[in-house]
Amino acid sequence: MRRFGVLVWSFIAVIAILGALGPASGYGADGSHTGSPVAFDIAPQPLTDALIAFSAHTHLQVLYEGPITEGIQSSGVSGEMMPMVALDRLLAGTGLSYRLAEGDTITLVRDSSSGIVPGMVGAGVAAGAMAVSDGSDEAVQPTQKPVKVPEILVKDVRQRGADTSYVAEETNTATKSDVPLLETPQSITVITRARMQSQEVNTLAEALRYAAGVQGEPAGFEPRLTWLRLRGFESSTDGIFKDGLQLRNPAFGTTYNLEPYGAEQLDVLRGPASFLYGQGSPGGLLNFITKRPTKESLHEAQFLVGNYGRYEGRFDLGGKINDNDKLLFRVTGLFRESGTQIDNVPYDRIFIAPALTWQMASRTSLTLLATYQKDNVNALQWLPSDGTLLPNPNGVVTPRRFAGQPGVDHYRRTEFHIGYEFRHEFSDSWNFLQKVRYNENNLDQTTTYIYAMDPDRRTGLRDEWADVGKLGGLAMDNQLHGRFSTGSLHHAFLGGLDFQRVTFALKRQFAEASSIDVFNRYDYGLPGVVPYFNSNQEITQYQTGLYVQDQVKYDQWLLTIGGRHDWAKNETTDLLANTSQSQTDNKFTGRAALTYVFKSGIAPYVSYSTFFLPSIGTDPEGQPFKPETGRQYEAGIKYQIPNTRAFLTAAVFDLTRENYVQTDPGTFLPVQRGKARSRGVELEGAASFDSGIDVIAAYTILNTRIIQTTEPTEQDKMFIQTPAQFGSLWVKYTVPEGTMKGLGIGGGARYTGYTYGDAANNFKVPSYVLGDAVADYLWGHWRFALNISNIFNRHTFACFNEGQTCTYNELRQVVGTVAYRW
């Protein structure tokens, strides 16, 4: 605790030193700012429609006299820029300009030769500096009062800002372009920062609990890493991305567990994505979007306490470095000391993520991003199913049971990421984006675990698993974006070239450990192990991909078509056997989708896509395995309720995975014979209403089957640890006005259907429902919150190892938060 005491005083000192910086912007402030860069994608169209789209992107009120926009066309705007710059471009050549009044309200006026300059800010300020016009022939002199514009119309006004909403307007994960979610022809969930704050998520797994089609905790309570299963398919090793660049993890040896406090949002893309990202999981991907520098001053400090001895401090600072807006910064950090529901399993973390944006020129910017993270945790516990899920005459194994070896077992991971994003606009219609990142992950772990139970139904048999691993990755993605028209067809073009190199070195040892009495909480067995297997491997993987995509808009139709060709190479060296193996593959993948966007906000779509994933090794004849392949058909409908932050989606899909490698039970040799299928329905909705009500609802139906296999017992069976149905509902109400303004209360329920813990589907794990709750209060610059997950402390399980072992899911977690923003 002395170390934590030093941390607390340091944290308080940071608050004291930075308290005088920047203007106040408390938790209750409106989140719509005029100076933050925004990603625009507004096609050439009538000016009235373009202004509605501008309001949807920025949440600014656009006011004008009804007739002044009639019959005027706008050339549109595309790319990431300040809202006022985008508005200048929308109004270019229209004969109109604007004035910015208080409350983020924009008033359109007719331009004239008397001095109106597009982009003039602040009617009051402008009146003292130059003449302005309200559309009459007579200019207003500097000494006159600000002009009043009659017959005002308010277009697409939304009261709640983006930083307090559960609903995002757009994401570029599904198309690598800034496309509204309504026009994205694939099932996707965007988990916003506001949503993560309300639910006080501490891991990516917790953030995924209220999303359709994704499992973040299939193996139960797991503090070490992020398990990810999308549409029933395992995606942990190749389905995690950060800022659009893959964090690949060969052989699942050195893993990732990204800090959610460092994320601005999380995008869950369901279904194959090889057509843009190359080799990956058929189920989809999770894209972690890093917090970026802000033009507005941002200062936030948080202190959290919780059960199991949790103490945590956080900070998030950002703004301008100088007065000319050329340099922007952001620094996000976290320090945590905590126990967990399991004895001898800590959950300690140090995390810091600095970022810097340099506006090199009006059309050129460079953003530097870095992350350092150090974790001290331990493994989930394999406990016998006989005594946890199943009755045992010797009693019940406590959830606190640590079945490892104290002082020996550990899991220490240190990782850092450093990279940049360079953006240059050649014109209003064409721009270039380059993303580069290098990451390194070092792991030292030893885990002692129970793998079976003695016939006495009391003695647990144990093994020890020890790893020393180093994972390095260099990723680059070059993108060229362009917008042009061919007659009545409007094109959003994307062309790209990416490259990735992953290196992985792993020393691994398996050993036989002493047995223990699993019902004696403090029996840890005898020290010492008997090694029986060692390995020492080095793996290098290369991927180069060339891709192109065109989104063609005609009236209300949108055709998205794209293709990609990949060249992949894998080199594996066995340092003990002094052997090496090299394998190269190349593959073309693609997607085609058609969307129709009704003016009412309804958008049905259909899509077809393919994927590939190299398979390492050779068949019994010595021939290299072909890449694993698959395809997906998907149809869905999306609905953006007009003039609200409410978004509903429904999708049906048929996803097939082919040619995955298995072991032939007759020869014990690897063969490429596996085929599996996942079909399902995903329903999801999120809304943040002006009345103060926030809602999340999701429901998933999965029909998973093994179609072809070398193991007869699993033929036509469901995937293990994959429920046929799961769903969730979360509702929160925050008082918007009156004496209780800022008081919020809410909760949710999570349903998980039955699963199987063995391939033959003989070991059935029952379904369960868990509840969560939150109460918070916003008072000026302060936020006070209490979050409880699994509020009734239900004991539920995830089982595996052919049903011999289970783990407890997360027990009740209680977290109190005090936050101050200035």
Count of individual domains? 3
Number of helices: 7
Q: Give the class-level CATH name of the largest domain.
A: Mainly Beta
Q: Major sheet, described briefly? A: 22 strands, antiparallel, barrel
Number of strands: 45
Which structural category do the helix and sheet elements fall into? mainly beta
Instruction: Work out the radius of gyration.
Output: 28 Å
Percentage of residues assigned to helices: under 10%
Parts with pLDDT < 50 across at least 5 consecutive residues: 1-25, 29-34, 112-159
- Shape descriptor: globular
Beta-strand percent range? over 45%
Mean pLDDT: 87
CATH architecture of the largest domain: Beta Barrel
Q: What name is given to the CATH topology of the largest domain?
A: Maltoporin, Chain A
CATH superfamily of the largest domain: TonB-dependent receptor, beta-barrel domain
| N→C terminal distance | 29 Å
Secondary structure topology:
Layout: H1 2-18, E1 38-42, E2 45-46, H2 47-58, E3 61-65, E4 73-74, E5 77-81, H3 83-91, E6 96-101, E7 105-110, H4 123-127, E8 152-155, E9 170-171, E10 179-180, E11 188-192, H5 193-199, H6 204-207, E12 214-215, E13 229-230, E14 233-234, E15 240-242, E16 245-246, E17 263-270, H7 274-277, E18 284-290, E19 298-306, E20 310-320, E21 327-337, E22 348-361, E23 364-377, E24 383-384, E25 410-425, E26 430-453, E27 459-486, E28 489-517, E29 530-554, E30 557-574, E31 579-596, E32 602-613, E33 628-640, E34 645-663, E35 670-688, E36 693-708, E37 725-734, E38 743-752, E39 755-756, E40 764-765, E41 768-779, E42 782-789, E43 797-800, E44 805-808, E45 813-821
